[in-house]
Each structure stands twice: as structure tokens, then as C-alpha cells.
Design a protein that fits this description.
This protein is 68% helix and 6% strand. It has 178 residues and is mostly helical. It has a two-stranded antiparallel sheet. A hairpin with a 4-residue loop joins strand 1 and strand 2.
Length: 178
């Protein structure tokens, strides 16, 4: 994809001025024909391609942010609603875990180990751990899939930006599908 952007920049900076500076083609009547290439249009299409490419996000970076704190990957992608929900989920987990630790310290003291806890407290600790892992894993998965989907949509828009170079013609077009 970076090669395509580089080719577009090369074409706009090198070939387009050379083609625009060429002699005008005259019709049979002797009046000059209008040039086929509109430099402003070409520059606009290249700017659109560069802007679209700048919106692409790394799925691995989104997953890494979600690994640091659930919801951070969604914030990186600009999905603030899901990011806030994941952020709230992990924050509530930490508050719940803090409450469990305080309760266990008051009941069992500072020297309690997992084996000395009763079965109910052991189940509470294990289930809260798996809830935490579930929140983290789903946040990472959602961030990766959302980034990948976003990049595919941008690639489809960039694919529709076509460049054609011939000796007689230079064109950049944008295909619109219905």
C-alpha cells in the first residue's frame, strides 16, 4: 500500500507537470483542444489517497493497548463507546478485587494462603480471575477485529482509486460502486 502512495506521489510530482507542459494538441480547425488532465483533480485524488492511508490503524497496536488496559485499544481506534464499556469493566473488576482482598485480610489475616481459604472464597477468587481474563481477551479480540475491518474498508476505498498512464493519456479515477 505504501508503494501505491509512493507511485501516486511520483506521478503527481514528475509526470503530471511534464504532460501538462507538453504542446497543446490542435484540432482539425486549428483551435487547441482542452487538456485531458486537470492538475487540481490529480492533486486532490492524491491528497485523498494519502488522507485515507493515514486513517489506517495497526491491529497489533490496538491489541497491545487493550492488553495494557481493557478499552485502550478501542480508544486508539476511535470507538469511544466500546472503549468506555471495556474501561468500566476492568475498573469495576479492580475495585471488586480490592474489596475481596480487604475482606480476606480481615477474616484470615495477612498470612493466609489460597489453601487455607474456605471453598466459597476460593471459588470467588477463581471466578473473578476468569472474569478478568475474559474481559481482557474479548477487549483484545474486539480491538484487533475492529482495526482489521477499518483497514479493509480503507483498502477498498484506495482500490477504487485507479491510475492509468499511457503515452497519450494520463488519468486518475475514482470508482464508485452501488
Amino acid at each position: 500500500m505504501k508503494n501505491r502512495i509512493g507511485i501516486l506521489l511520483f506521478l503527481s510530482l514528475m509526470i503530471v507537470p511534464a504532460v501538462l507542459g507538453a504542446q497543446e494538441i490542435t484540432s482539425v480547425t486549428g483551435t487547441p483542444k482542452p487538456t485531458v488532465i486537470d492538475h487540481a483533480y490529480v492533486s486532490n485524488q492524491i491528497a485523498v489517497a494519502i488522507e485515507l492511508n493515514s486513517y489506517k490503524k495497526s491491529p497489533f497496536a490496538a491489541s497491545a493497548f487493550s492488553l495494557l488496559y481493557a478499552g485502550a485499544g478501542q480508544f486508539y481506534l476511535g470507538d469511544y463507546t466500546k472503549g468506555s464499556l471495556f474501561f468500566l469493566g476492568e475498573t469495576l473488576y479492580h475495585l471488586f478485587n480490592y474489596g475481596i482482598r480487604i475482606r480476606l485480610q480481615t477474616v484470615y489475616g495477612e498470612t493466609a494462603s489460597f489453601n487455607t481459604l474456605n471453598t466459597t472464597d476460593q471459588v470467588l477468587i477463581i471466578s473473578s480471575f476468569f472474569i478478568y481474563i475474559g474481559i481482557k481477551a474479548f477487549s483484545m479480540y474486539d480491538a484487533y477485529v475492529t482495526a482489521d475491518t477499518l483497514n479493509q474498508q480503507i483498502d477498498e476505498k484506495l482500490q477504487s482509486l485507479m491510475v492509468k498512464v499511457d503515452p497519450q493519456e494520463f488519468s486518475i479515477s475514482y470508482r464508485i460502486g452501488f
